[in-house]
Fold:
Amino acid sequence: MIGSHLYPLILALGLTTLVSACSGTVGGDDAEALASPLSQVAKAAPAVLGPKTPPVDPRRLLTRAAIDASPTPVLLTGLEARDIYATLSPAGTNRDATTWFTADSKSLTFTRDILIATRGLGNDLMGADVREMRNQLRKGTGSGVRVYDYLDGENQIVRRSFYCTLHPRGNTRLAIFDLEVATRHVTESCQNPELSFENEYWIGATGRIWQSRQWASPDIGYVFTQHLSR
Structure:
C-alpha cells in the first residue's frame, strides 16, 4: 500500500530542495559544480515514476556546495523499510511544530526535531503527544509516555500509548557532507503490550537533533532524518 505513495513522494522531495538551490548566486567553477548534481536529478526525475526504475537517491548527488547554496534549510529523510531517501524544505511553523512539505503536499511535521505527524505516506501518523519525552530528551535521561494517533488499514484512527525510557550512549562526531558535528547519541526505548520500538537521536551542543531514526507507525516504520544545512 505504501509503495504507490512513495514513488511520487520521492520525485517531489528529491527536487523540491535541490532545484530551489539554483536560485542562489554562484559563479565560475562553483556554478558548474552545483549544476552537475542538480541536472542529474532533473534528468533522472521522469524515470522515478517508472515501475521498474529505482528512485533517485539524493545522497549520491548532493554536495556541500549545493547544500550551502540552498536558500532554505535542507533536511535529508528516508523511509527505512523501503530504502528510499529524499530532501525536504520547511514550509511553515505553527507554535513549536514545523512542517516540511513536498511539491505534491506530502509532509512530515516535527516539534523540536521530534516527529509528530506524517501526511501522504499511507496509514499515516496523524498526531503524537510527545511532551513528556521532549522535555527530557535534551538531558538524555528519564522516562515518560508517548501517545500516537495513526491510521490503520481501514483508514480508522487508532490511539496507542507507549512507555519510553531514554538511554545516553556517549559522544559521537557526525560527518554530514563534509560538515563535522559533535553530538550526544541518545536512544529511546518504547513499548506497550502489543508493540515496541527504539528511537535514536544525535543531539548537538545547542539542542538541535542533527540526526535521528524515529518510528512513525506500524506501516511506515522508521523515518531517518538528518539536517544538512549549517
Q: What stands out?
A: The chain is about 20% helix and 45% strand. Residues 3-20 form the longest helix (18 residues).
